[in-house]
Write a structure and sequence with these properties.
heterodimer, A: about 800 residues, alpha+beta, Beta-Lactamase, 6 domains, 5-stranded antiparallel beta sheet, 25 helices, 19 strands, about 55% helix, rod-shaped, B: about 120 residues, alpha/beta, Rossmann fold, 5-stranded parallel beta sheet
Chain lengths: ~800, ~120
């Protein structure tokens, strides 16, 4: 109890400290009321009324000053209160002058200097009102506000005309000055009324909402007081002390309350932003209605007391008021139609389905997207139960979750969920939707917005499946794969698969972000740089055989194939590196190469000695030998030569097939290759008595000249071997598409059809006895095929037995190579 | 001429060929080291026939050493080699060989081949 008492007392103290003007007002009202009741001041009661005007004016000024101080940081609010304060300053001056005339000089005059001050009050207040900020508004809204204000001014003007103005203008009995001042008051009232109406209809900042309410009351009191006072003045029925004077005193009270209700700067500045638009439709149209009522009241009054109104002016008044009202409603109506059209267009064209239903679970309205989703005719769903749209959902279950019939649960409101939708034909589809609610025309409406996510779910499932499949390929590939993203021009590892990890001995965590420098053998740094340069130069597939450093410091030989993925501008984005461990192959190759090299050398050394000894003997360097011995030596020499050729051919074939001696392709005229080959073999042809006829088209081929000359020599030599003495071999080159076709034709015995392919195999000859008879190694055609195929060409033989044979091979034309 | 080959039999046959079939005066040695020594003591030579694959100093190294010395600086060098790839021959020519003769060679034709090489050289 004590606590409550203490707190209420401290609350009062706080109020007194923050709003002392309210306490002062309370005190003033008590004194004023007691005087009205008991009349305790000696003197002429009627005139003493004036004594109360100056203090209450001062009180309003004091309250306004405080409001001004509180709103120092909001310029427009500060100037609003400053203007109101200035207006009341004029009022105070006027009342002091009036008091001087009435009480001190005891000589009331009209008009006087006091009226000048009184009249200054109206424009100052109108200015304060009109300077308040408005929110953003459309042309239509501004037009509506202006029409509303005009209607109010005309309606109010009619009332004022009826009471004062009409009489003052048409029948004033006073002096010109008297009439003028009286009219000025009425005009001031109208100006204030218009300003007030305009501010109310066009909207005002939230910070001014409470104060403006009080100001409105105060101004309406003033206008009423002015009208009554004017009426009395005009009819000479006014005398000081009239009850209307009390109205003048009391009209100040709302202004004190208004100023006191002005919130402080911090709150006001927040409110200054939010400009309330009072002008939303219905509320505003009440004002013209009030104006019409005022007009009607005037009409009734005229019938009652047909006094100041000529019939014409009444007619004009009614026409103007009617036109204003109709115009105002027309503008509002047009805006409403546009708004409705806009909303309709939006709602009908959204891709999401919208279904609204009421609290009984009945569908109220459905948009076209929803009708399409459920495959129903337009309007067909309206009035149907909403639960018929879903599978496995009953309204009885839904209702409590939607807060229907006053149930507290609202768990389903605003929550996105996936249900099963049912089309008219019974087919179902996954439906993702969210239900919200709204008050529409005083009734709660539930709004379901959703979409058929079947397509999306199928796509997502397919995507997951595809992702799983590719992930599987990546994870389980036998070849090592490293996926890297380019960062600052270098590929940084993002992901590696198990095979890659196994090959290099590092885990993904250890390699993530590395730019392959961890894995590169110091001697292969150059290769890495070259690959980087190739990527920069625009190559998308790069193959290399290089050494890979493993985590344990050892290295493996790897065949690395890198594919580059680029963005639209051509900059590299990702690199997919495939690494195959070829250490064993490399080792095998090395052993074989070494073997071949050693064998080559080791076989040749004794052969050189044998061949040399035999040659010297056969040549007679050691003295003449018996004829038979000479023949034996000739056989020994020729067979040694054959053995040497055989070894050369075997080593050659080995080298070409292993790809170890890379081809050095250059652009060469085909005719030059043919010429060189004939130069080499001419002596053999001459010895065999065979003529070589050559005809080469003017073609440039991409070839390793040494190797192709070797091939041609082999083939021509072959042809010579199988030609009879006096026969001829024809060598030709022709163009066929992007290729040059070399052909070597002999008129020999030909090749049986079933051997045409086989003769290119190693040690295969047309006749098993050929090797001995013709001195061939059985490897010449195999070498020719190997060389041609390494050039990317094709080699084949054509023959009809008894009509000779033609060997042909193709080489790409220079400039066509690599296409 | 200076003949350098580590294989006795080949050296012997080559010497026979050059002296009997051809008309050369041959100083045969069995290694690069001996060749350098012979060049200093028994030179000057008008031709050096040099085996490529030898233990110790191989053919090309021997040639470089000989060329560095004053006595054999301008003497043409012909290599004897069991490596017959065009690329191998090309490499030898590039380091300054006047000619390359493959093994096995025809002893009856060797002097003529050398004459041809020297003829082309002059």
């Amino acid at each position: 109890m004590r606590g409550g008492f203490a707190s209420s007392r401290s609350g009062a103290r706080k109020l007194m400290r923050s709003r002392p003007e309210l306490l002062a007002l309370l005190a003033f009202l008590l004194v004023y009321a007691s005087w009205l009741a008991v009349d305790w001041i000696p003197g002429e009661t009627e005139k003493l009324q004036i004594l109360f005007l100056a203090p209450i004016d001062a009180l309003v000024i004091y309250a306004c000053w405080h409001a001004c101080r509180r709103c120092e940081e909001v310029p427009w609010l500060r100037s609003f209160w400053a203007l109101v304060m200035l207006g009341w300053g004029m009022e105070l001056l006027a009342d002091l002058v009036l008091g001087l005339y009435d009480i001190v000089l005891d000589d009331p005059t009209f008009p006087s200097v006091a009226d000048l001050f009184f009249l200054a009050f109206y424009p100052l207040l109108a200015l304060a009102l009109l300077r308040t900020p408005t929110g953003p508004s459309t042309r239509s809204q501004r037009l509506q506000s202006a029409l509303d204000a005009a209607t109010v001014v005309v309606g109010g003007g009619a009332a004022i005309w009826y009471f004062d103005l009409g009489h003052a203008v048409t029948e004033s009995a006073g002096s010109f000055l008297e009439t003028g001042v009286t009219i000025a008051y009425q005009v001031g009232d109208l100006v204030l009324l218009g300003a007030l109406a305009l501010v109310l209809v066009r909207g005002y900042p939230e910070a001014l909402r409470l104060p403006l309410r009080s100001v409105t009351v105060g101004l309406l009191m003033l206008i009423a007081a002015d009208t009554v006072y004017g009426h009395q003045q005009l009819h000479g029925s006014y005398a000081p002390g009239d009850p209307v004077d009390t109205l003048y005193v009391l009209m100040a009270v709302p202004f004190v309350l208004a100023a006191a209700s002005q919130r402080s700067t911090a709150a006001a500045s927040a409110g200054a932003q939010a400009v309330s638009r009072a002008a939303d439709g219905l509320r505003v149209s009440r004002l013209p209605l009030l104006a019409l009522l005022a007009g009607s009241a005037v009409l009734i009054g005229t019938q009652w007391r047909d006094k100041f109104f000529p019939d014409l002016s009444l007619l004009i008044l009614v026409i103007v008021l009617g036109a204003l009202t109709v115009g105002r409603q027309y503008v509002a109506q047009r805006e409403l139609v546009q708004l409705r059209e806009r909303v309709r267009t939006i709602v009908e064209s959204v891709a999401d389905g919208i279904v609204t239903f009421d609290e009984r679970g009945q569908i109220v309205w459905v948009n076209p997207a929803a009708e399409e989703a459920f495959q129903v005719a337009p309007g067909e769903l309206e009035g149907k139960p909403v639960d018929s749209l879903f599978e496995g959902v009953e309204w009885a279950e839904m209702a409590p979750l939607l807060g229907v019939d006053g149930s507290k649960g609202r768990s389903a409101i605003g929550r996105r969920r996936t249900l099963t939708g049912v089309r008219r034909d019974g087919a179902t589809f996954p439906l993702e939707m969210v239900v919200t609610d709204a008050q529409l025309g005083g009734e709660r409406v539930l709004i379901a917005v959703g979409q058929d996510v079947g397509q999306r779910e199928r796509a997502a499932t397919a995507l997951r499946e595809s992702e799983r499949r590719f992930r599987g390929i990546f994870d389980h590939a036998g070849v090592g794969i490293a996926f890297s993203a380019f960062d600052g021009g270098r590929p940084c590892i993002v992901d590696i698969n198990a095979a890659f990890s196994k090959t290099v001995g590092y885990s993904l965590e250890e390699l993530r972000g590395d730019d392959f420098s961890l894995l590169t053998h110091p001697d292969d740094r150059g290769d890495l740089a070259e690959m980087g340069a190739a990527v920069a130069a625009g190559e998308d597939y790069i193959g290399r055989e290089l050494r890979c450093l493993r985590k344990d410091g050892s290295f493996v030989w790897g065949s690395l194939t890198v594919s580059i993925l680029r963005d639209d501008s051509g900059a590299p984005r990702f690199a997919i590196g495939m690494l195959e461990d070829i250490t064993r192959r490399k080792e095998a190759e090395r052993v074989k190469d070494e073997f071949v090299s050693v064998v080559g050398h080791e076989l040749r050394t004794p052969l050189t000695a044998i061949r040399g000894s035999l040659g010297l003997l056969e040549g007679g360097v050691m003295g003449d030998l018996p004829a038979e011995a000479g023949q034996m030596l000739t056989t020994a020499v020729s067979n040694t030569d054959r053995l040497v050729r055989l070894i050369n051919d075997i080593l050659d074939l080995e080298r070409i097939d292993s790809g170890h001696t890379g081809l050095e392709l250059e652009s060469v005229p085909a005719a030059v290759l043919v010429e060189q080959s004939i130069d080499v073999i001419q002596a053999v042809a001459d010895a065999a008595g065979v003529e070589i006829r050559a005809q080469a088209a003017d073609l440039e081929v991409a070839a390793d000249p040494d190797r192709i000359v070797q091939t041609l020599t082999n083939l021509i030599g072959n042809a010579i071997k199988f030609s009879a003495r006096g026969g001829s071999v024809e060598v030709g080159v022709e163009r066929s598409g992007g290729d040059a076709v070399f052909s070597i034709h002999d008129g020999g015995r030909g090749i049986p059809a079933d051997r045409l392919e086989a003769i290119f195999e190693r040690f295969v000859q047309v006749d098993a006895s050929d090797a001995r008879e013709k001195g061939g190694t059985g490897l010449g055609l195999a070498i020719a095929r190997s060389i041609v195929e390494h050039h990317g060409g094709r080699i084949w033989a054509e023959s009809r037995e008894g009509e000779g044979a033609t060997f042909r091979f193709t080489l790409a034309l220079a400039g066509e190579a690599g296409r | 001429m200076l003949l350098v080959d580590d294989e006795d039999s080949i050296r012997e046959i080559a010497q026979l060929s050059l002296e009997r079939v051809g008309d050369w005066e041959v100083v045969p040695v069995a290694s690069g080291g001996e060749a350098i020594e012979a060049a200093a003591t028994q030179g000057p030579f008008s031709l050096i026939l040099l085996d490529v694959m030898m233990p110790g100093l191989d053919g090309p190294t021997t040639m470089r050493r000989l060329r560095d010395g004053p006595l054999a600086a301008g003497v043409p060098v012909v290599f004897l080699t069991a490596k017959l790839q065009p690329a191998d021959r090309e490499r030898l020519r590039q380091i300054g060989a006047a000619g390359v003769i493959g093994k096995p060679f025809d002893p009856m034709a060797l002097p003529a081949e050398l004459d041809e090489i020297l003829g082309a050289e002059q």
